[in-house]
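Retro notes (design track)

What went well: tokenization of the new backbones is finally stable.
What didn't: we kept losing track of which sequence belonged to which structure.
Fix going forward: every design gets posted as structure first, then sequence, in one message. First example under the new rule, 101 residues:
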């Protein structure tokens, strides 16, 4: 899919997410598996929405440390896309900080 750079990062991310959803389906099962992998690796409970936040944090780190030109929007678009995934995951599997303890 060609990226339309004239739109905001959230607009572009929404378009990418629609294509991804059509191709792969709901992202929640993937985030559930990722959360189980993180849980096993770190020996702590990791919820699916936490797994998505790890992806967002990775993109935030890349944006902060990358020294990219101001017109390089890939990380910002990905952050918006992961925020959209987080919304989907939270809609499907509600949890709260209280449920984590």
């Amino acid at each position: 899919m060609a990226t339309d750079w004239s739109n905001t990062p959230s607009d572009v991310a929404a378009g990418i997410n629609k294509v991804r959803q059509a191709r792969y389906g709901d992202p929640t099962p993937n985030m559930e598996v990722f959360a189980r992998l993180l849980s096993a690796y770190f020996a702590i409970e990791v919820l699916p929405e936490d797994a998505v936040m790890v992806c967002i944090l990775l993109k935030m780190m890349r944006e902060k440390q990358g020294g990219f030109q101001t017109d390089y929007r890939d990380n910002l678009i990905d952050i918006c896309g992961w925020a959209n995934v987080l919304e989907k995951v939270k809609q499907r599997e509600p949890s709260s900080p209280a449920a984590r303890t």
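Added context from the reviewer: The first helix runs from residue 9 to 24.
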